[in-house]
Amino acid sequence: MLSQTNAVAAPMLPTINMFVRKHFVHIISLVALLAFLTPGASHAVRSHKLAYGQLDASGFSLFLMMLSAAIQCGFSAFRSVVARPKPLLVCLAQFFIVLPLSCWLLGQLCIPLLGRSLGEPIQIGLDLVILMPVAATATIWVRDTKGDIELLVSLVVITMSLGTLTAPAYLYFMSGLTANSIVIPPFLMLRQLAVGVLLPLVIGMTLNRLLRSRLSRVQPYFAFLGNVGLFMAVYLNVGTASPLLRDLSFQQIACAMLIVLAVNLANFFLGSAIGRVAGLKRDHQVTCEFSSGMRSNGTALVVGLASFPGTPLVTVPAAIYIIFQHLIASIVKSRLAARYGNGDGDGDGASARAPAADKLASAAQASPVRARVSRAA
């Protein structure tokens, strides 16, 4: 009976994952709206804990998202990337230096436009978003626009590992420069990130190495779990912030959305500009742009609320950003198609991609929000 159930479920999961990929923005918007309207249910779900009270529903959702992304990350992706390190170094400099600085500068608008009570948590939320790993969901956009998937995979793994370790310190100093009155708990954040990001990263990459040829058969299951984790994270965290959001004026909400949109647009613009200025090849420019504009917002939602339980408004930027980044990504994809065509003309670009990258791209077809490396939002 169990084998029959698995046989029926197996062909359905890729279809479900594909449906989620095609309608992601609509689904995530509906989930956020439902969470806004039913804060009581969200609170009830969050009250349940696992692992002897050490892991709540939000933490569990983050674990599912990161495991779904990590299982598609293999060490083999680093080989060709390390052989030509310039694109990787450019993208890492962008992630660790340029984007935090630009986000901090734009964040200075929060308090003047929103007031201190709303502006401070929104500012911290923006900083938190920009410090999160590159979204695994960026993989589908990179693949569709003939970017370098191996470079993207390497960026996801590095930002999930090294970025996780540096994010608390970054946020602490960025908040200190702004004289923000909200206390930053760096060690609590590090604990949340270690359990929710580093642990599933190690487990996922280990499974990737052990499963190898069998990975394609089990990947739809992990992709489905990644989707479940992402939607659960959005529902739980938006629901928690809902009572406070209802007390805000329409003008405050509109200004907050515009600031988040400005940061998202700036990130995509900087990724495009830096790729060109650095003289990167076409496929590397594409990867540079999408890795700059897309963040693992599910991680920001969970870590934000866990680290600032008394200030749930810090999760608002991530909830807004997660919708905007996919809308902007679709526009960027159309712009790149008009500018470069199908990308087949670049001899060293996507057409010359290694077989390992092609396997990663095909695996992304079932990914969590359609991720290559599972593509985590």
Structure description:
There is one protein chain. With 377 residues, the chain is mostly helical. It has 17 helices and two strands. The protein has a two-stranded antiparallel ribbon. The chain is globular. The chain starts with a helix and ends in a 14-residue tail after the last helix.
User: How many domain modules?
Assistant: 1
Element-level helix/strand string: HHHEEHHHHHHHHHHHHHH
Instruction: Estimate percent helicity.
Output: over 70%
Largest sheet: 2 strands, antiparallel
Q: What is the distance, rounded to the nearest whole angstrom, between the alpha carbons of the first and last residues?
A: 36 Å
What's the helix count?
Answer: 17
Strand order of the largest sheet: 1-2
Radius of gyration: 20 Å
CATH level-1 class: Mainly Alpha
Considering the chains and any ligands shown, give keywords for the structure:
mainly alpha, Na+/H+ antiporter like fold, disordered C terminus, two-stranded antiparallel sheet, 17 helices, 377 residues
Topology:
Blueprint: H1 2-22, H2 24-37, H3 39-46, E1 49-50, E2 55-56, H4 57-70, H5 77-83, H6 86-107, H7 110-114, H8 116-131, H9 138-144, H10 149-178, H11 186-211, H12 215-245, H13 250-277, H14 282-293, H15 297-307, H16 316-340, H17 355-363
Antiparallel strand pairs: 1-2
In short:
The protein is an all-alpha fold and 377 residues long. The protein has one domain (57-366): Na+/H+ antiporter like fold, CATH 1.20.1530.20.
